Amino acid sequence: MKKILIIDTKAGNLFSLKAAIERLGFAVTILDKPNDETFDGVVIPGQGRFGTVLKNIRENKWDVFLESARQINLPILGICVGMQVFFEASEEDSNVAGLSWFKGKAKALDFPKKPMVGWAKLDSEMWSDSVVYFVNSYAIKQSDLSIAETCYGETFCAAIKKDNFIGVQFHPEKSSEAGSEIIRQALSLSGAAK
Q: What are the catalytic residues (predicted)?
Protein backbone atom coordinates (compact mmCIF):
# COMPACT_ATOMS: atom_id res chain seq x y z
CA MET A 1 0.00 0.00 0.00
CA LYS A 2 1.42 3.39 -1.01
CA LYS A 3 2.14 5.80 1.84
CA ILE A 4 1.02 9.39 1.32
CA LEU A 5 2.06 12.36 3.43
CA ILE A 6 -0.25 15.32 4.01
CA ILE A 7 1.75 18.33 5.18
CA ASP A 8 -0.06 20.16 7.98
CA THR A 9 0.39 23.84 7.09
CA LYS A 10 -2.37 24.82 9.58
CA ALA A 11 -4.68 25.44 6.60
CA GLY A 12 -7.66 23.52 5.31
CA ASN A 13 -9.73 20.55 6.39
CA LEU A 14 -7.05 17.90 6.66
CA PHE A 15 -9.41 15.16 7.72
CA SER A 16 -11.75 15.36 4.71
CA LEU A 17 -8.63 15.32 2.52
CA LYS A 18 -7.22 12.35 4.45
CA ALA A 19 -10.51 10.46 4.09
CA ALA A 20 -10.66 11.17 0.34
CA ILE A 21 -7.13 9.80 -0.16
CA GLU A 22 -7.71 6.76 2.05
CA ARG A 23 -10.84 5.87 0.03
CA LEU A 24 -8.48 5.40 -2.93
CA GLY A 25 -6.55 2.72 -1.05
CA PHE A 26 -3.57 4.78 0.11
CA ALA A 27 -2.20 4.87 3.67
CA VAL A 28 -2.14 8.50 4.88
CA THR A 29 -0.01 10.26 7.49
CA ILE A 30 -0.45 13.90 8.56
CA LEU A 31 2.68 15.63 9.90
CA ASP A 32 3.38 19.21 11.00
CA LYS A 33 7.16 18.65 10.89
CA PRO A 34 9.32 16.34 8.75
CA ASN A 35 10.64 13.15 10.31
CA ASP A 36 12.65 10.17 9.06
CA GLU A 37 9.71 8.36 7.43
CA THR A 38 9.67 7.80 3.69
CA PHE A 39 6.58 8.34 1.57
CA ASP A 40 5.36 7.53 -1.93
CA GLY A 41 3.66 10.89 -2.45
CA VAL A 42 3.07 14.27 -0.80
CA VAL A 43 0.01 16.54 -0.61
CA ILE A 44 0.04 20.23 0.35
CA PRO A 45 -3.56 21.09 1.28
CA GLY A 46 -5.57 24.16 0.37
CA GLN A 47 -7.34 27.03 2.14
CA GLY A 48 -5.54 29.60 4.25
CA ARG A 49 -3.48 32.71 3.48
CA PHE A 50 -0.49 32.60 1.13
CA GLY A 51 1.87 34.23 3.67
CA THR A 52 0.74 32.12 6.63
CA VAL A 53 1.11 28.85 4.71
CA LEU A 54 4.60 29.81 3.53
CA LYS A 55 5.60 30.85 7.06
CA ASN A 56 4.61 27.42 8.36
CA ILE A 57 6.38 25.66 5.46
CA ARG A 58 9.64 27.55 6.06
CA GLU A 59 9.59 27.47 9.87
CA ASN A 60 9.14 23.70 9.88
CA LYS A 61 11.69 23.06 7.10
CA TRP A 62 9.12 21.69 4.69
CA ASP A 63 10.76 23.74 1.93
CA VAL A 64 13.91 21.61 2.31
CA PHE A 65 11.86 18.40 2.41
CA LEU A 66 9.86 19.38 -0.68
CA GLU A 67 12.98 20.24 -2.67
CA SER A 68 14.40 16.80 -1.81
CA ALA A 69 11.11 15.19 -2.87
CA ARG A 70 11.29 17.10 -6.13
CA GLN A 71 14.83 15.87 -6.80
CA ILE A 72 13.74 12.22 -6.55
CA ASN A 73 10.57 12.82 -8.62
CA LEU A 74 8.20 11.97 -5.78
CA PRO A 75 4.57 12.67 -6.75
CA ILE A 76 3.51 16.01 -5.22
CA LEU A 77 -0.04 17.38 -5.25
CA GLY A 78 -0.61 21.03 -4.32
CA ILE A 79 -4.21 22.10 -3.67
CA CYS A 80 -5.48 25.71 -3.92
CA VAL A 81 -3.04 27.87 -1.90
CA GLY A 82 -0.97 24.65 -1.67
CA MET A 83 -0.39 25.10 -5.41
CA GLN A 84 0.06 28.90 -5.31
CA VAL A 85 2.99 28.75 -2.83
CA PHE A 86 5.14 27.04 -5.49
CA PHE A 87 4.95 30.17 -7.65
CA GLU A 88 6.92 33.39 -7.11
CA ALA A 89 4.41 35.53 -5.23
CA SER A 90 0.77 36.40 -4.53
CA GLU A 91 -1.14 39.66 -4.34
CA GLU A 92 -2.69 38.30 -1.15
CA ASP A 93 0.61 38.84 0.71
CA SER A 94 2.78 40.82 -1.69
CA ASN A 95 5.72 41.08 0.74
CA VAL A 96 6.11 37.28 0.94
CA ALA A 97 8.19 35.36 -1.62
CA GLY A 98 6.85 32.04 -2.84
CA LEU A 99 8.97 28.91 -3.24
CA SER A 100 9.53 29.96 -6.88
CA TRP A 101 9.55 26.52 -8.45
CA PHE A 102 7.40 28.02 -11.21
CA LYS A 103 7.17 31.47 -12.78
CA GLY A 104 4.07 33.52 -12.05
CA LYS A 105 2.08 35.31 -9.40
CA ALA A 106 -1.31 34.56 -7.87
CA LYS A 107 -3.64 37.49 -8.47
CA ALA A 108 -7.07 38.56 -7.29
CA LEU A 109 -9.54 37.68 -10.00
CA ASP A 110 -12.44 39.70 -11.34
CA PHE A 111 -15.11 37.39 -10.00
CA PRO A 112 -18.84 38.17 -10.15
CA LYS A 113 -18.89 37.45 -6.40
CA LYS A 114 -15.95 36.98 -4.03
CA PRO A 115 -14.83 34.48 -3.05
CA MET A 116 -15.62 32.03 -5.82
CA VAL A 117 -17.49 29.21 -4.10
CA GLY A 118 -19.02 26.37 -6.04
CA TRP A 119 -18.80 24.03 -8.98
CA ALA A 120 -17.23 24.85 -12.35
CA LYS A 121 -16.35 22.84 -15.44
CA LEU A 122 -12.73 22.35 -16.43
CA ASP A 123 -11.48 23.06 -19.93
CA SER A 124 -8.89 20.30 -20.03
CA GLU A 125 -7.69 17.57 -22.38
CA MET A 126 -6.48 15.58 -19.37
CA TRP A 127 -9.77 15.82 -17.43
CA SER A 128 -12.33 16.53 -20.13
CA ASP A 129 -15.85 17.35 -18.92
CA SER A 130 -14.79 17.25 -15.24
CA VAL A 131 -16.80 19.51 -12.94
CA VAL A 132 -14.96 20.39 -9.72
CA TYR A 133 -15.43 22.46 -6.57
CA PHE A 134 -13.68 25.81 -6.06
CA VAL A 135 -13.27 28.06 -3.02
CA ASN A 136 -10.89 30.90 -3.91
CA SER A 137 -10.36 34.62 -4.39
CA TYR A 138 -6.85 34.38 -5.92
CA ALA A 139 -5.43 32.24 -8.69
CA ILE A 140 -2.63 31.99 -11.21
CA LYS A 141 -4.19 33.67 -14.24
CA GLN A 142 -1.92 32.06 -16.84
CA SER A 143 0.90 29.53 -16.80
CA ASP A 144 2.92 27.73 -19.45
CA LEU A 145 2.40 24.63 -17.29
CA SER A 146 -1.40 24.81 -17.41
CA ILE A 147 -3.28 21.55 -18.02
CA ALA A 148 -6.75 22.94 -17.18
CA GLU A 149 -8.57 26.26 -17.18
CA THR A 150 -11.95 27.42 -15.96
CA CYS A 151 -13.96 30.62 -16.21
CA TYR A 152 -15.63 32.59 -13.43
CA GLY A 153 -15.78 36.23 -14.43
CA GLU A 154 -12.53 35.63 -16.31
CA THR A 155 -10.59 32.59 -17.48
CA PHE A 156 -7.82 31.41 -15.17
CA CYS A 157 -5.47 28.47 -14.72
CA ALA A 158 -7.22 25.68 -12.80
CA ALA A 159 -4.36 23.14 -12.81
CA ILE A 160 -0.70 22.78 -13.70
CA LYS A 161 1.69 19.88 -14.24
CA LYS A 162 5.47 19.81 -14.23
CA ASP A 163 7.30 16.50 -13.98
CA ASN A 164 5.77 14.77 -10.91
CA PHE A 165 4.11 17.92 -9.55
CA ILE A 166 0.41 18.53 -10.12
CA GLY A 167 -1.19 21.67 -8.73
CA VAL A 168 -4.92 22.32 -8.72
CA GLN A 169 -6.72 25.55 -7.84
CA PHE A 170 -9.88 23.63 -6.93
CA HIS A 171 -10.53 21.18 -4.09
CA PRO A 172 -10.47 17.61 -5.45
CA GLU A 173 -11.35 16.20 -2.01
CA LYS A 174 -14.70 18.03 -2.30
CA SER A 175 -15.22 17.24 -6.00
CA SER A 176 -16.91 13.85 -5.90
CA GLU A 177 -15.79 11.13 -8.35
CA ALA A 178 -14.00 13.57 -10.68
CA GLY A 179 -11.91 14.83 -7.78
CA SER A 180 -11.11 11.32 -6.59
CA GLU A 181 -9.80 10.42 -10.03
CA ILE A 182 -7.63 13.56 -10.13
CA ILE A 183 -6.14 12.72 -6.71
CA ARG A 184 -5.51 9.13 -7.82
CA GLN A 185 -3.75 10.27 -11.00
CA ALA A 186 -1.62 12.85 -9.17
CA LEU A 187 -0.43 10.42 -6.52
CA SER A 188 0.16 7.55 -8.96
CA LEU A 189 2.71 9.37 -11.13
CA SER A 190 5.89 7.36 -11.58
CA GLY A 191 9.47 8.54 -11.55
CA ALA A 192 9.48 8.45 -15.35
CA ALA A 193 6.52 10.86 -15.68
CA LYS A 194 7.19 14.23 -17.31
A: 80, 171, 173
Q: Which of 88, 173, 177, 181 is catalytic?
A: 173
Q: Is residue 151 among the annotated active site residues?
A: no
Q: What's the CATH code of the domain at 167?
A: 3.40.50.880
User: What is the side-by-side strand order in the sheet with 89-90?
Assistant: 89-90, 105-108, 138-140
What pLDDT, in 10s, does the model give residues 139-172? 999 999 999 999 998 999 999 999 999 999 999 9
Q: Of the listed 22, 67, 92, 171, which one is catalytic? A: 171
Cα–Cα distance, 141 to 132 (Å, whole number): 18
Structural domain of 180: 3-103+159-188
Domain count of the chain?
1
Active site residue 149: no
173 is catalytic: yes
* 2-39 tens-digit pLDDT: 999 999 998 777 999 999 999 999 999 999 999 999 99
Q: Is residue 122 part of a domain?
A: no
